Amino acid sequence: EAGVAQSPRYKIIEKRQSVAFWCNPISGHATLYWYQQILGQGPKLLIQFQNNGVVDDSQLPKDRFSAERLKGVDSTLKIQPAKLEDSAVYLCASSLDVGGYTFGSGTRLTVV
Amino acid sequence: QKEVEQDPGPLSVPEGAIVSLNCTYSNSAFQYFMWYRQYSRKGPELLMYTYSSGNKEDGRFTAQVDKSSKYISLFIRDSQPSDSATYLCAMSGDQAGTALIFGKGTTLSVSS
């Protein structure tokens, strides 16, 4: 079974620039999550999709972050404009049910 | 008070030692409890998954949940250098598919 694919692996941008991350979940997994993991912290949920509908985006900073899930499969997360405090690893995960979370390797974002 | 508290360590032990990792939580609605292992520059991988209270054993790993005390533990027997990683506890509410709340993670180093 192929895992959760994420790209790019690393990204360095200047503050106020925009950036986008891509995620391809495990085939057949209806639920997709984006988490933000700041250095030394546990992952924090940004947004959860069920198929192509949003289930929970209560912690997504909507003034600068946006996400979509195309046709209930791939997903993109965008930040515009980026701030220094957005430096983190952005993890995508997918699941069939609550016990079946699989994470990708993440995108490490550095904002300078 | 954070929903999930976890001592970040670091924790250093010699090879062969028994390791005890712990988390406390405040939300009595949590029913699903997990432990993830995260190697440097990798995404978290699921180690143990427990529903409600009780113990679960898988090889050298044992997970315990005490809902009355709102306390969960992970024990690693005969620890190996390959166990050196960050261990994250995670939990979610009483509906399958709800997002996980993570602890900060405990960094473990096992020396040979």
Structure write-up:
The complex is a heterodimer of chains A (112) and B (112). Chain A has 112 residues and is an all-beta fold. Helix content of chain A is 0%, strand content 50%. Chain A contains no helices and eleven strands. In chain A, strands 2, 4, 5, 6, 9, 10 and 11 form a seven-stranded mixed sheet that branches. In chain A, strand 7 and strand 8 form a beta hairpin. The termini of chain A are far apart. The model of chain A has no long low-confidence stretch (mean pLDDT 93). By secondary structure, chain B is mainly β. Chain B contains no helices and eleven strands. The mean pLDDT of chain B is 92. The interface between A and B is medium-sized, with 26 and 28 residues.
Care to give the gist of this entry?
The complex is a heterodimer of chains A (112) and B (112). Helix content of chain A is 0%, strand content 50%. Chain A is built from no helices and eleven strands.
